[in-house]
Specification:
With 81 residues, this protein is an all-beta fold. 0% of the residues lie in helices and 48% in strands.
Length: 81
């Protein structure tokens, strides 16, 4: 008798560990991309940024960073999931 096991689908959004740099926020995975969400205590930023490993979207004291597809240096295991 043949048995079939169902594959468990990977969730589209996975929340990871908290940040350890003195800011509030968390790391995450969306699909196959890693990123982080940050809430600052003092500095406000607005607009878009492009770094070596991430693209940032800033609105006030809140920022979202998403890993770029082709990075200039390794992104390592940012999401820690």
């Amino acid at each position: 008798m043949t048995t079939f096991s169902k594959a468990v689908p990977t969730p589209f959004f996975q929340k990871g560990a908290s940040l350890n740099d003195g800011t509030d926020g968390f790391r995450f995975n969306i699909g196959n991309r890693s990123g982080l969400y940050r809430v600052r205590k003092a500095t406000s930023r607005f607009g878009l940024t492009k770094g070596e490993t991430t693209r940032g979207v800033h609105f006030g004291k809140r920022s979202i960073y998403l890993e770029r597809k082709k990075t200039e240096r390794p992104f390592w295991n940012l999401s820690a999931l």
